[in-house]
Specification:
Bound molecules: adenosine-5'-diphosphate, magnesium ion
Number of strands of chain B: 7
Chains: A alpha+beta (about 400), B alpha+beta (about 200), C alpha/beta (about 575)
Radius of gyration of chain B: 18 Å
Number of strands of chain C: 25
Strand content of chain C: 15-25%
Helix content of chain C: 25-40%
Structural class of chain B: alpha+beta
Largest sheet of chain C: 12 strands, mixed
Mean pLDDT of chain B: 88
Oligomer: heterotrimer
CATH superfamily of the largest domain in chain C: P-loop containing nucleotide triphosphate hydrolases
Largest sheet of chain B: 6 strands, antiparallel, barrel
Shape of chain C: elongated
Largest interface: A-B, 22 and 21 residues
Low-confidence stretches of chain B: none
CATH class of the largest domain in chain C: Alpha Beta
Number of domains of chain C: 3
CATH architecture of the largest domain in chain C: 3-Layer(aba) Sandwich
CATH topology of the largest domain in chain C: Rossmann fold
Low-confidence stretches of chain C: 1-13, 571-581
Number of helices of chain B: 7
Radius of gyration of chain C: 30 Å
Strand order of the largest sheet of chain B: 1-2-5-4-3-7
Order of helices and strands of chain B: EEEEHHEEEHHHHH
Shape of chain B: globular
Chain lengths: ~400, ~200, ~575
């Protein structure tokens, strides 16, 4: 790396950021003022969204107030019992055409954090090898979708046997990722997966298993977008897709100052086209929550399906559960159960290599010809000078 | 023979072996245990476990910073988290064509060979062959808690020998250690202190 | 620990009761051998007699020092038994703490190649054929190699070196320090040269002398003349410290020993002597007086005066004449002047032309002698001659000084007597040499308080000096008994064949006893560590090698053994168990 050439660019970068920051301060102030002005105008805002022309609604994603004031902060409810937390997280190995064998893998880790004070946490790991037919029309998005579905399946399976109130927890939004569906791929296939997902949600609802998705350090601006709609003139509403007066300000920016530790924001419904397609009981709502400490706010976004959002008891359980889970982790606030599920799911590079070798060995054993790494990959595999470590550590 | 498998070889030099395993603590071999790797049918390498290394784990560190720890978190860590454990082994001898040598193995084993825990019979066979030559491999190490490994080994081996009705093995072993270390006052004192703490001797 | 022998040790030089005590780790001829002790230090003592068989040789030596060592001094400093379990502590000590022996190598003896080998056969055959000399003890000329085994010698080895007690000439003088094995003195060899018994007062000289004298009388190869200044040897005595009865030689050997009392009417220890020694005045020579110069504080003029006396009155009469003179007697002349009386010393001096003052001075200084009642003008018998005859005939004479315990008497009498003896033995030897008479009977003159007679000043004048130096040829030797060997003339000391010494504290005395011997530094230590009254060190030409011994007890049992002709084989330990302890 030629640091001499890089340095002036770094200086320029910092300079610009500083300039932008001043601009941002102004925008932020405007946005905050808007929040103040419109906080209690819930009904007015709902009507206003209805006035948005259909062509402008297509890609719109914003908060839809339900009944609480926009800038409301809700304190941590006191509960006698804790729900059992079911956390599921998946990871995947993408098929690699440079590797000697072409396969993919989804590994889902599940973690049960029991509400019963006497019970111990439990873990589950379910790996699934993806190969052959499954890899026809392969795309990263499809694998991710499959993984998400496996995660929810696991929550369902774990929750079946649990008596106490329990809440399934996943990392990321509940709204399933559809990024890949537009860029080619099999639309029908996508729809099938979506249906499977809806079924799963329905099952969870029926089994009375709560569900929440936790988004750490969210950059979303759903509430800010709502405020933009609020301040828009009718003309501006006509061209809403281009109207971004509060651009650069996120929900966390404006709520960070309002929410005290352990408090959550008002509950909103997510206004988006995909969400509208969701079964009514599973339509997605969200709130923000401060899991940080005094002077060090740390906001997370929690997504919940309608069956949770509409029941105050469920909502309280989720609120308390998230706070508790984050507290376990101390300063690095993040739900403990989710982290554990993630830990169980992660497939390390060594593990991946080992699996590759394993498959190769088995193939060899059954007399199949085996190929090797591509040269490109093989060169990459050579240890770089800096990375080399004495295999035994320490001096020998 | 009832074989206990401990783990698989990660890396090795002629003098030391590193073995990875994910067993729960109950199955872990104790420091000083005699272990064996069989790279070939007629070739076995013997080693002494001198260190167990539990890989650095960010989560545990993070959890440890939290004042009040949830019992469940502790239980989870102990029961469920399969933190990889590295077992470090000193090569102390080998067996070839039925003959035991207290020399460093002529060639180190290859990766992923299985590490086995030696039975009492094997301990007796290995420690009784020759004249305690293998002890020098332990005493030579600089970065090893020599005295602890030695005391632990003598205690384990003494136990094995007693099972076979041989009560004075440890006596002879300690004599040998003293002879080997008598010019190194500090080292010998540490070793004897450890042996005293091991409470094998009256 | 009875060490089983190596196959090549099944030979006559290693007896069954030897114990391996260690192995050689270093050293040399100059600075002694060093051996690592493998048994408890309590089993070995300074002076222990050890043997080191190695190759074709057996080496014999003495333990001269026992030293504690540690591989690291910290092992010794640390009281590890307090910190470690006792097993560990004792194993640690076994390996890091050790005891080294210093061994003075003295003798070596060829033992030949390992028996039952062809080499051995050849070797033995060569000796048989006399093409090779018989193995004999010789001073060490080389040393055993590293790790040669060191054994504590057994009875057999002691006998091998110091002689078997069963042989007639060998007399058990004591036992090895451990009190186990008898150590012999070859009496024939002992009397061949003058010998000395030394030790501080109370160290056991007189008792040991009694023992040796008893042995010599028993052996009967030499006559003894004992100058018994303190009346210890003839009749029974009471031990000054224990108060128990100590038998005299006369009591045991009866008529073979004659006790002679000095002067008439003296009793010795309450008993009447066999006869009295009375000295005829005619027997007194001028030299006998000159010898007393120091004692009587005589002037330089003495010899002139004495010469004048002898020439005036003759050799036989001078003493009596001089004694008769009246010192300072005066008479008045016709003209009323006072002049020396004719019978006065001055009158004689004037006549003889010697200095009056000198003559008068000598007369007055000799007056103690003039009043000795053992000096007679005409004794009833020639007792000096009687003594000489007795000695010639094989009897033993103890001359007790009775109440004449002044140095004056001792010097005067012993010299006079010895002078006569010397004349007689010299004459007889000369006759014998010319085949005119029998071989003279060997004579040992025992001199207590020898330094009085053999000190530097006296030595030149007394007969003892001559005897010590020359009389060996004439069958007369000295056995000198003394507590101040440093005061004895070196010339005399150097003549002593056998030296036996009890404990000595004075450096000069120690040096004197060890003069001329190899390994003096080592022996010095041994001398100072001797147990008074119990132990003595045998040294010198008369013994094959120096060795400290526990001296034989001079007691009832000794007498009984001697009477029954037992050699004293039983060790002290056995004796004790015999007595039922
Ligand atoms: N061989 C011995 N047997 C018995 N007692 C002895 C012996 N040697 C010395 N002793 C004891 O030691 C004391 C002193 O001994 P002694 O021969 O008179 O000493 P020294 O003549 O050297 O002054 C004796 O009274 C006696 O009790
Ligand atoms: Mg005396």
């Amino acid at each position: 790396m030629d640091y001499q050439k890089l340095y002036p660019q770094i200086q320029e970068f910092v300079f610009q950021t500083k300039a932008n920051r001043q601009q941002w301060q102004i925008t932020y102030q405007n946005c905050s003022d808007a929040l103040c002005n419109y906080s209690d105008k819930v009904t007015e805002l709902i009507q206003r969204i209805d006035q948005i022309p259909v062509n402008q609604q297509k890609n719109l994603r914003c908060a839809l107030p339900i009944q609480e004031q926009l800038d409301q902060s809700i304190i941590l409810p006191k509960l006698d019992t804790m729900p059992t937390v079911l956390a599921a997280d998946g990871s995947q190995i993408l098929p690699d055409r440079h590797a000697p064998v072409y396969y993919g893998l989804i590994n889902v880790g599940g973690f049960v954090f029991p509400g019963n004070p006497q019970a111990f946490p439990q873990t589950v790991q379910i790996p699934e090898l993806i190969y052959g037919e499954q890899l026809e029309n392969f795309s990263e998005a499809r694998l991710a979708l499959q993984r998400d579905i496996h995660e929810r399946e696991m929550l369902l399976n774990m929750g079946r046997t649990i008596q106490m109130p329990c809440v399934g927890l996943v990392d990321g939004p509940l709204e399933i990722w559809i990024g890949g569906s537009h860029s080619g791929g099999d639309q029908g296939d996508y729809q099938r997966s979506l249906n499977t997902y809806f079924h799963l949600l329905g099952d969870l609802y029926q089994q009375k298993i709560g569900l929440a998705g936790y988004i750490d350090r969210p950059e979303s601006n759903y509430l800010v977008r709502l405020l933009e709609i609020a301040v828009a003139t009718p003309e501006e509403l006509q061209n809403l897709q281009r109207f971004h007066p509060f651009s650069g300000v996120s929900d966390v920016d404006i709520l960070g100052a309002l929410l005290k530790p352990t408090q959550r924001s008002a509950l909103f419904s997510l206004y988006s086209q995909p969400n509208i397609q969701y079964p009514t009981h599973s339509q997605i709502g969200f709130f923000y929550i401060n899991v940080g400490s005094e002077n060090h706010p740390w906001l997370g976004r929690v997504e919940v399906p309608a069956w949770v959002a509409q029941e105050e008891q469920w909502l309280n359980l989720v609120h308390t559960m998230i706070v508790h889970q984050c507290q376990i982790m101390g300063k690095i606030a993040y739900p403990f159960a989710l982290h554990r599920a993630h830990e169980l799911a992660v497939v390390s590079n060594e593990e991946k290599d080992q699996i590759t070798r394993w498959i190769l060995t088995e193939m060899q054993r059954s007399g199949l010809p085996i190929s090797s790494y591509s040269h490109k990959q093989e060169l990459k595999n050579l240890p770089s000078r800096r990375e080399w470590k004495n295999p035994l550590g320490g001096k020998m | 023979m009832n074989q206990i498998q401990i783990g698989r070889l990660l890396s090795a030099t002629t003098r030391q072996l590193v073995v990875g395993c994910q067993v729960s603590q109950i199955d872990l071999p104790a420091i000083g245990s005699l272990v064996r790797i069989n790279p070939q049918v007629d070739y076995a390498i013997y080693g002494l476990v001198y260190d167990l290394y539990i890989a650095d784990d960010g989560l545990v560190r993070q959890l440890a910073t939290v004042g009040e720890m949830d019992e469940k978190v502790i239980a989870d860590h102990r029961l469920n988290r399969s933190v990889p454990i590295e077992i470090r082994v000193l090569s102390v001898g080998y067996k070839m064509a039925g003959q035991i040598y207290h020399l460093l193995p002529p060639k180190p084993p290859l990766g992923l060979e299985i590490l086995w825990l030696c039975s009492d019979e094997e301990i007796v066979e290995f420690t009784n062959s020759g004249r305690y030559g293998y002890l020098r491999h332990i005493l030579r190490e600089q970065d090893v808690a020599v005295e602890e490994v030695l005391a632990a080994h003598i205690k384990l081996a003494d136990n094995a020998h007693r099972q076979k009705g041989e009560a004075d093995w440890s006596h002879k072993a300690v004599q040998e250690v003293i002879v080997l270390l008598r010019d190194d006052y500090a080292a010998l004192t540490r070793v004897l202190q450890s042996l005293a703490d091991s409470q094998i001797f009256s | 620990m009875i060490e089983k022998k190596r196959t090549d040790e099944t030979n006559e030089f290693v007896s069954q009761d030897v114990r391996k005590i260690g192995y050689i780790v270093g050293g040399g001829l100059q600075e002694n051998l060093k051996a690592r002790l493998i048994v408890s230090a309590s089993q070995v003592q300074e002076g222990s007699f050890v043997m080191i068989p190695s190759g074709n040789w057996v080496y014999y030596g003495l333990v001269t020092n026992i030293q504690l060592g540690a591989t690291d001094p910290r092992f010794a400093d640390e009281e590890s038994e307090l910190r470690l379990p006792s097993d560990l502590a004792s194993w640690l000590h076994g390996q890091t703490l050790y005891t080294n022996l210093e061994i003075l190598p003295v003798l070596m003896l060829e033992r030949g190649p390992a028996p039952e080998t062809a080499e051995y056969q050849t070797w033995a055959q060569e000796i048989e054929d006399r093409s090779r000399s018989e193995p004999h003890l010789m001073p060490v000329k080389t040393i055993p190699p590293h790790h040669a085994d060191v054994y504590l010698a057994g009875e057999g080895e002691i006998a091998e070196i110091f002689g078997k007690p069963t042989r007639e000439e060998n007399f058990v003088l004591g036992y090895t320090r451990e009190g186990e094995h008898p150590v012999c003195l070859d009496l024939d060899r002992f009397v061949q040269r003058s010998a000395g018994i030394f030790g501080a007062t109370g160290s056991g000289k007189s008792f040991l002398t009694r023992i040796i004298l008893a042995g010599l009388i028993q052996r009967n190869r030499a006559s003894l003349l004992v100058f018994d200044m303190h009346n210890e040897y003839g009749f029974d005595d009471i031990a000054s410290d224990s108060g128990s009865k100590v038998s005299g030689l006369r009591t045991l050997f009866q008529t073979r020993v004659r006790v002679v009392g000095l002067g008439a009417g003296n009793t010795i220890r309450g008993a009447a002597p066999d006869f009295n020694l009375e000295i005829a005045m005619k027997d007194i020579c001028a030299v006998d007086i000159e010898l007393l110069s120091a004692e009587l504080n005589l002037k330089e003029t003495t010899s002139t005066t004495l010469e004048a006396l002898v020439s005036s009155f003759g050799v036989e009469n001078w003493y009596n004449e001089f004694r008769e003179m009246e010192n300072g007697a005066m008479m008045e002349t016709e003209d009323g002047k006072k002049v020396p009386a004719p019978q006065s010393v001055a009158a004689w001096a004037n006549r003889a032309g010697v200095n009056v003052m000198a003559a008068e001075g000598l007369h007055s200084k000799m007056s103690p002698l003039f009043h000795r009642n053992y000096i007679l003008e005409n004794p009833a018998s020639d007792s000096i001659n009687e003594i000489v005859t007795m000695l010639q005939q094989g009897q033993h004479v103890v001359l007790s000084f009775g109440d004449y315990d002044r140095d004056l008497d001792y010097l005067f009498v012993t010299n006079l007597l010895t002078r006569r003896i010397r004349e007689v033995w010299e004459a007889q030897t000369n006759q014998y040499r010319t085949k005119k008479s029998n071989e003279p009977r060997p004579l040992v003159i025992v001199v207590e308080e020898a330094h009085k007679l053999l000190n530097r000043q006296m030595a030149s004048q007394t007969t003892f000096n001559t005897i010590a130096r020359e009389m060996r040829k004439y069958y007369v030797t000295l056995l000198i008994v003394d507590q101040r060997p440093s005061q004895i003339y070196d010339e005399v000391m150097s003549q002593l064949g056998t030296r036996i010494s009890g404990w000595l504290g004075d450096d000069d005395d120690i040096r004197a006893v060890l003069a001329g011997l190899a390994g003096r530094e080592t022996l010095r230590g041994m001398l100072t560590h001797l147990q008074p009254k119990e132990e003595v060190l045998l040294l010198g030409w008369g013994v094959p090698m120096p060795i400290p011994i526990r001296s034989r007890r001079y007691d009832q049992r000794f007498w009984e053994d001697l009477k029954e002709g037992k050699a004293g084989l039983q060790s002290e330990k056995q004796t004790i168990s015999d007595l039922g302890f």
